């Protein structure tokens, strides 16, 4: 076994360190609770409601907070395992895992909006891992594992996100070989059946999120089109619920890496990039085209698909990093990354500037922090792309610094905690968006 393929604890320790640095307020004050955690929302969630009855009153805030934080850590570990199963090297796998674990979009929902019910998406990489094994191997055990992990995702996640995650997973795992398509269909049919049997309580709770007339197909367009001007970075001002429901919170350098993936990471990356584009198109108004399909027409706010898109975005960035480092930062791969950056600036950055022009309200810290960071790390990104003699490790280090800064800048202060005496302030709730 080569040194590159040999299992090692080093990447997991790196992920643990990044997680600990990010959640250090909770680690330093383990008996307190995450400030944005929405307890009214949690008590309406059947699995969480059952858990609350068994939590001592003195730990009513700390336990759910740690459940959320540990789900984030698990997401990083699962995403790393999945990336390694696709033969990404250690650096690329850590990038993919970090990009999903600390996704700006995910942390905005968890730690700003208080959507603790989004924590169950941590199981998504493991669902994909078992599903792909079930498709490629003539065994029923991976199908069973897929169903169990899918049930865990469903029980820990809002029904809308659970459904969107399944739609993504089915498309993501579509095999290239036609001979495996029947196995793909059987695998997902079995997994969904097992998951449905194990998560009946949560499926019955789907009525919480079903459409009640507030958002028809034209509403999807009315919400999606403004979101097309808000894919990049946080909103100009803090305006609940629009600051998370209609804001992509994607980083410009992460998007550049994802766009470059089909150019340098092989044929499979092209399909994966296509799936990512499909999710984005769905969120930006494409939901209106399939609004007539069963289940799809039940949910409001289709822009929530962008939260599921955080995983393929992170994975493709990891695939690009793998290709860059494996080629020792060849001119070809650096040129592809530069092309990806230019395309993001033209097709995402320019619309974002237009959206800022029409935005109103007082500028808040997240907007200033993100765009200040994006400008400050631009010289580092240019240095990564330059043809001047730069050591491979130096280029890799600079690239990782750019990605980490781009990822954390808009969410850096969100893991704030509060004492138990402040457990029930006025919650920040997401109300139905009106077209």
Describe this structure in words.
The protein is mostly helical and 435 residues long. The chain has one domain (23-421). Helices cover 62% and strands 1% of the residues. The chain is built from 22 helices and 2 strands. The chain has helices spanning 10-22, 24-28, 39-42, 46-52, 62-85, 90-101, 104-111, 124-136, 141-155, 159-172, 181-198, 200-204, 217-228, 242-245, 252-264, 267-283, 305-308, 310-326, 331-358, 365-376, 378-385, 392-408; strands at 33-34, 417-418. The protein has a two-stranded antiparallel sheet with strand order 1-2. It is globular, with a radius of gyration of 21 Å. The N and C termini lie far apart (57 Å). Residues 211-217 and 425-435 have low confidence and may be disordered.
């Amino acid at each position: 076994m080569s040194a590159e393929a040999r299992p090692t604890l080093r990447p997991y320790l790196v992920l643990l360190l990044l997680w600990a640095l990010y959640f250090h307020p909770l680690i330093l004050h383990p008996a307190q609770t995450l400030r944005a955690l929405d307890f009214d929302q949690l008590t309406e969630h059947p699995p969480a409601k059952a858990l609350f009855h068994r939590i001592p009153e003195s730990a009513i805030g700390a336990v759910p907070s740690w459940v959320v934080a540990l789900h984030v850590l698990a997401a990083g570990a699962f995403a790393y395992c999945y990336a390694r199963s696709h033969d990404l090297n250690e650096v690329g796998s850590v990038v993919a895992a970090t990009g999903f674990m600390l996704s700006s979009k995910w942390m905005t929902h968890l730690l700003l909006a208080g959507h603790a019910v989004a924590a169950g998406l941590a199981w998504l990489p493991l669902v994909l891992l078992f599903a792909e094994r079930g498709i490629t191997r003539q065994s029923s055990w991976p199908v069973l594992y897929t169903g169990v992990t899918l049930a865990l995702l469903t029980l820990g996640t809002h029904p809308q996100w659970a459904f969107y995650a399944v739609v993504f997973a089915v498309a993501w795992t579509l095999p290239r070989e036609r001979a495996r398509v029947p196995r793909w269909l059987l695998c997902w049919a079995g997994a969904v059946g097992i998951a449905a049997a194990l998560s009946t309580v949560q499926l019955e709770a789907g009525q919480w999120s079903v459409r009640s007339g507030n958002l028809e197909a034209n509403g999807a367009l009315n919400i999606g089109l403004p979101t097309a001007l808000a894919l990049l970075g946080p909103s100009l001002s803090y305006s609940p619920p629009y600051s998370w429901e209609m804001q992509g919170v994607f980083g410009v350098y992460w998007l550049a890496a994802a766009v470059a993936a089909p150019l340098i990471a092989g044929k499979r990356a092209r399909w994966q990039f296509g799936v990512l584009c499909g999710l984005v198109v769905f969120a930006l108004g494409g939901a209106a085209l399939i609004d007539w399909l069963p289940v799809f027409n039940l949910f409001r706010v289709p822009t929530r698909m962008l939260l599921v898109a955080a995983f393929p975005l992170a994975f493709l960035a990891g695939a690009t990093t793998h290709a860059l480092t494996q080629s020792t930062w060849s001119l070809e791969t650096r040129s592809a990354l530069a092309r990806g950056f230019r395309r993001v600036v033209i097709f995402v950055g320019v619309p974002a500037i237009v959206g800022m022009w029409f935005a109103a309200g007082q500028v808040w810290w997240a907007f200033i922090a993100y765009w200040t960071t994006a400008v400050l790390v631009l010289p580092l990104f240019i240095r990564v792309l330059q043809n001047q003699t730069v050591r491979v490790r130096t280029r890799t280090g600079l690239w990782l610094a750019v990605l980490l800064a781009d990822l954390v800048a808009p969410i850096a202060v969100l893991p704030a905690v509060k004492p138990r005496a402040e457990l029930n302030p006025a919650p920040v709730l997401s109300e139905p968006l009106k077209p």
